[in-house]
Amino acid sequence: TQFPICSTAKDCNPPLTDPCNPEELTRCGCDSRLDEKFNFTIQGFNLEDTDTMHFVPYEQLCNDSYTPPYLSSFNQQQYKPITTKERDSATFYGFRSIHA
């Protein structure tokens, strides 16, 4: 969704367990527009415009020693992310959270 943090979900009973389910998002008062495409925005610290985003299959566990084999992970990032002056947020453009 456009807003990955849903403040109303903290009080949802029963708790929100599937953030990809539009019915559950609506029940908890969250944005349920899963059919729209949005850029990725990451919140953190010390983010830089040289950071990249990669994806691995859901079934693959990551750990400190994991190095993804070639083509096991993919990166469709076309542009450098735009970082805030405080370097606490970076928006990645050029690839989306929903497959086209």
Condensed summary:
The protein is largely without helices or strands and 100 residues long.
What is the N-to-C order of secondary-structure elements (H for helix, E for strand)? HEEE
Radius of gyration: 16 Å
User: Which spans have pLDDT < 50 for at least 5 consecutive residues?
Assistant: 96-100
Q: Please tell me the overall pLDDT.
A: 77
Q: How would a crystallographer describe the biggest sheet?
A: 3 strands, antiparallel
In one word, what is the shape?
Answer: globular
Q: Write out the strand line-up for the largest beta sheet, numbering strands in chain order.
A: 1-3-2
For the termini, the CA-CA separation is 15 Å
Helix/sheet category: little secondary structure
Explain this structure to me?
This protein has 100 residues and is mostly loops. The chain has one helix and three strands, in the order αβββ. The protein has one helix at 22-27, and strands at residues 40-43, 82-83, 89-92. The radius of gyration is 16 Å and the shape is globular. The two termini are 15 Å apart. 6% of the residues are buried. The model is unreliable at 96-100 (pLDDT under 50).
SSE layout and pairing:
Layout: H1 22-27, E1 40-43, E2 82-83, E3 89-92
Antiparallel strand pairs: 1-3, 2-3
Key terms:
3 strands; 6% helix; 1 helix; 100 residues; disordered C terminus; 10% strand
